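note to self: dont lose this again. the chain is below, predicted strucutre after it. 427 aa total, dont forget to put it in the shared folder this time
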Amino acid sequence: MHRLLHNPKAHDTFALTKRDVPHYTLVVQGRFHTFALAKSLLALDMPVRVVTNYPAFVAERFGLPRACVTGCAPLGLLHRYAYRWNIGQRSDAINRFLHVAFSHWAASQVSKSPPDVLHCFSGVALEIYHALQAQGLYPLTLLARGSAHIREQYRDLAREARRAQCPEIDLPSPWMIRREMEEYRLSDHIVTLSSYARNSFLSRGYSGEKVLLLQLGSNVSQFRPDRAVIDRRLERLRSGQKLVILYTGNVSLQKGIIDLIEAARMLKDKMHFRVVGNVVPDAIARVAAAKDCIEFIPRVPEHELPGLYNDADAYVFPTLHDGFAAVLAQARAGCLPIVATDHCAAPDMLTNGETGWIIPTRSAGDIVSRLETLNNDRPLAASMVENLWQTCDTRDWSDVGADFLKLAALALQTKASAGNASHSKSL
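---
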């Protein structure tokens, strides 16, 4: 493993030697939040390497220097088109191949230069763990789990498949469940992204020491609107115009599209609903039947999202299952009152009645009730917008990077202490 390097920026963070900094390797199939986390660590002069199926030159477009990226273009292309054509979701064999092939390739790359801290997404960690153990190498392993416990995920989505009478919903396969369960067991720690996700592990008997919490953020400077945007929104609210209710992200059964459509139908004469994002196959028929009450806009590049938030008056997120949901952080940075379920990071981000409301899943009635409150009490809606503008306490990626360093430092210290205790017992 790498020799720990001195970094004067980290003297208040690392407790192992109070002056030495570990090497990090982040492994992800795709991008997710890993690129943003890596950029925040690089900004702190941390030695970071990203192993991904993105080619290095493509990762560079997202702000990562080529020198810190190890990419695999062939696997990236296979993954991209398998999911674009919905082959990965339909075929368990192809989904299995994509995960195992990437994990084997990533294991070969990580083994060439083992890190001190390995932060790898669940589903593609298993072969890496096995390869390192075969070499007698035991870095700190932090397993990134983007959702709640996989059995909770299966339970929620299977229930929705029954409600929707839709066999096309993308459920975790038995093979993937077994795979992730083994990754949970082998990792030093599981890193979750919200209290909801962390509690899904704790409720299944995992210890608080095993399951860590790293709340994500957003690019606040990108999504925080100018004061003129806020003033226009307040003017719309006070004038009594129809509220514009926004949703962004994949349009799917998992995201609660059934409840969103039901709420939009009940409120279509009072509010304008705007949904922006890719339509997943399990939602195609429902979207086609809901164009009378919702304006559907195809997915747009991230740099165009701030304009959509600026033109909205409130945000709704009826998801049935999300580990975090970056769009919530974006909407909050955009100073929009939010109505969201408790199956995501909303309980960590919202204050009921002040910045929005947290509601149960599968409850179109609660969506309607909260949005009608905003519609009927425009001074309340305006106060929420103003409160969000004045407090502006949304986390950005520099906060996430700093918290990740603290989390890793404490985990390293715990691992070192446990190793010393085992050595003492063996003497």
